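Human:
If only I could read backbone structure tokens as easily as an amino acid sequence. I am handing you a single protein, as its sequence and its fold in token form. I hope you can help me see how the letters and the tokens relate. Thank you; the sequence and its tokens follow:
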Amino acid sequence: MTIKMKQVFKEKVDKGDTWPQILHHNYEKYGDSRIAIRYKHNGIWRPYSWKDYYINVKRLALGLLSLGFGSGDKVLIIGDNAPQWYYAELATQANHGVSVGLYSDLTPLEIKYIAQNSEARFAIVEDQEQVDKLLQIKDELPFLKKIIYWNYKGLARYDNLILVGYREVLHLGENYEQEHLGAFEENLKTGSADDICALVYTSGTTGVPKGAVHTYKTMKASSDWFLHLDPWYENDNVVPSLPPAWITEQWIAIGCHLLSAAILNFFEKPETQQQDTREIGPNVIFYGARLWENQASEVQSRILEADVIKRLAFRFLMPIGYKMAGFKYRKEKLSLLWRTLYALANIVLFRPLRDSLGLSNARICCNSGAMLSPEAFRFYHALNLPLKSLYGTTEGGALSGAKNDDIRLETVGPVQNGAEVKITDKGELIYRQPGIFIGYYKDPDKTAEVLKDGWFYSGDSGFVREDGHIVFKDRLKDIVDLSNGDKLAPQFIESRLRFCPYIKDAWVLAGTQRAYASAIIVINYGSVGQWAGQRGIAYRTFAELSQKPEVYQLVKSYIDRINQDLPAGIRVKKYVNLHKEFDPEESELTRTRKLRRAFLEDRYHELILAIYNNKTEVPIEVEVKAQNGKARTMKNTIRINSVEGDD
């Protein structure tokens, strides 16, 4: 079996040097005989074969050429996950162009920055919303030549020469092919591994996003490694959670998909993701930490609201799952008693839970972007899901991950083959390997800060254990030296707080000028609202509910649990329930829902001062900007509570 899998993998990685070349290989091998993509539209799963995939890419590429596309041109791609997103990227690359993926919820100002920085000449977007954003800023984008949209709803009466529909571009491509026979195929042949294929912009946690320049060689290095880590098969179903604006989806949904010929499945809309995922039952799951944590929290919320029998089943059977997970970590042999108990628990509880999450067929489950809390990690392993954390960065490529039989709770796995890793005197993780980016686009100074003599300086704190596994702590700049001499990694405490079903987000404050750690909590409005309703606690708004004394006590009970497992010097001593959710639209979070700490420190400066000046409440005003640029001011009084003793 092992020899066969190696032979299959060798065949898959010898398909070509570029993504369009590998697509052409799959088209010639499978044609109409195998499904490449499924897309749920209007409640119906619509299959697209490898021939469909190839023909769409070819016609779109030729249509772009007819519109004046030139080698090296940059193309903005904006929209939710859909086949057209992937056609747009590969069509761009087939023409020796460079894709620039953007999240669909970016504001016009955010789009303008990236469009100007990348000097994009074309934009391929999903719908009227994205068209409106670009039309709002097009006069400030001198390079932008055409905006192509694939969803026509609401755009019939738009009259602007810069706009053109996706179907019209495909038709232009058909006509162009008749006059330029073999143009597409010739472009495919002349592509090379060293060609620049994508600008992947960083999330901008510390400032404006930077465009990481990647070639096919650097992208393919990470995709190849993922396929060596765990074998993928042609009949595997994959459900990407985000479009390939994120580097992990570039590796997985573009690279691994093409190399393995597995099937990509796109849910209809974000609101139906869990139900659509359940219908597909994917074999391969790659989620960010926030999504894994949110799912685990939602399960706990549902159990809290369930009937007595289900709550008792969860209470008595989950410990069996945790015990079994412990046996697996330690690689201990199972007794007949424990095998029998787990088989019963699996039928009654674990299998239904896996099915409800769409994970009934999951064979490869990976977390990336941030470390999961130990509680969330153990929860999934108790359900017998082989969840593991990987480590990689937009600039440095994929570095580490464990095989399913070598997962460790507290690590991000061993270093991949061929990579070299060092830990600097400051505790910074640096490495070199084939997947490292070329540099930041038009920013040699920033490039020189992170690329030195072939080594990528990650900015992350971590160390390598004796068994070769890497332990990731936090961003180096976020590791806090407390006034008492202790060191605190905020992400560790924040992830544990988010595991609570009543807490949606958490921001831990600390520093050399601060005598103790504090937490700013964002409650989970849905689960806290139901909890309050069951207890007859009246409220009208999020802000009002968040400040209820009973809700403060509820949050405190979970902080107390977490503090019990922390050294005394880094325990959370004070906390507040924020009157609103953190919002990427207000620049409080990145689009991958990472905290923008420097921005938050500035925005909530008065609140932080009040916490550390021993005040019990503080009036707060926050300016909130809508997408249209209009601003309004929110006024609230926020309570500041101490964790020690009852308030």
